[in-house]
TrEMBL record:
Gene Ontology CC annotations of this record: plasma membrane
Organism from which the protein derives: Candidatus Ornithospirochaeta stercoravium
Top-level taxon in the UniProt lineage: Bacteria
Transmembrane segments: 55-85, 97-116, 122-140, 167-189, 221-242
Record's protein name: ABC transporter permease subunit
Length: 252
């Protein structure tokens, strides 16, 4: 008897196989690797990259910068959201900046930031800027939705700030933080890679993507893109898993 979980996995595997078949058929119909390489060509390019030390160096370069930008942004957004909730004037001052950053296209921000920041650190800054508004606004919304009766009780019994955060605010914030992290992780990767493609820092995945495009090496371009997708997927799953464990233990 096939369980529901096994059935779901089979369906997902079938969906992946279906789109791979569509890709292969489309590649055969076009008949030109320059426009659409076959899955086999991309797989061969991935295999060639896997034994190339410079490829793993580029992966590490990009990975550590995007993770650094994400963690700094997550931490600062949570802290500033708490401060903005506590002091309304700070929230009023930050609101226009947050809305402007969220509405501005990534390419415009990248070109502007390149004036002030070295290209090697560009993906850190861009990941930070793209993640910050999402986390900040979600946390602020979660704080605003906290039960007022509990807050009044804490005021009456003069409960300290740290205990309030742990036992009153965090239980309400957990779903908001999980949602913010899930959304912003994808943004961090997309914006970070886009920043590298524009800024072209030496030894980055973005540089490899750009070079593949310049030299019309479509299998390499697809291979680099697949690498980015896999990294983003793995990082998102690992970070979400760890963050859920940490948040739920702290909020107990």
């Amino acid at each position: 008897m096939v369980s529901t979980t096994q059935r779901t996995r089979i369906i997902k595997a079938g969906a992946i196989a279906f789109w791979l078949a569509v890709w292969e058929i489309a590649s055969l119909l076009i008949g030109e690797e320059l426009f659409l390489p076959s899955p086999i060509s991309v797989l061969e390019a991935l295999a060639a990259s896997a034994v190339d030390l410079s490829f793993w160096s580029a992966v590490l370069f990009t990975l550590e910068r995007i993770i650094l930008g994400f963690i700094i942004s997550l931490s600062s957004a949570v802290i500033l959201a708490f401060l903005s909730y506590r002091w309304r004037i700070l929230g009023i001052l930050l609101e226009p900046i947050v809305k402007v950053v969220r509405a501005t296209p990534v390419a415009s921000i990248v070109i502007l930031i390149l004036v002030w920041v070295r290209s090697r650190n560009l993906s850190v800054v861009i990941s930070f800027m793209m993640v910050f508004p999402v986390v900040y606004q979600n946390v602020l919304k979660g704080l605003g939705d906290t039960d007022r009766n509990l807050i009044e009780m804490a005021d009456a019994y003069r409960i300290r700030t740290l205990k309030r955060i742990r036992y009153i605010y965090l239980p309400y914030l957990v779903p908001y933080l999980e949602s913010a992290i899930s959304i912003s992780l994808g943004l961090a990767w997309k914006s970070g890679i886009a920043a590298e493609v524009i800024g072209l820092p030496d030894g980055s995945i973005g540089e490899r993507v750009y070079e593949a495009k310049i030299y019309l090496s479509m299998p390499d371009l697809f291979a680099s893109t697949v690498t980015v997708i896999i990294l983003a997927f793995v990082f998102e799953r690992v970070f979400l898993y760890l963050s859920r464990i940490i948040l739920r233990r702290i909020s107990r």
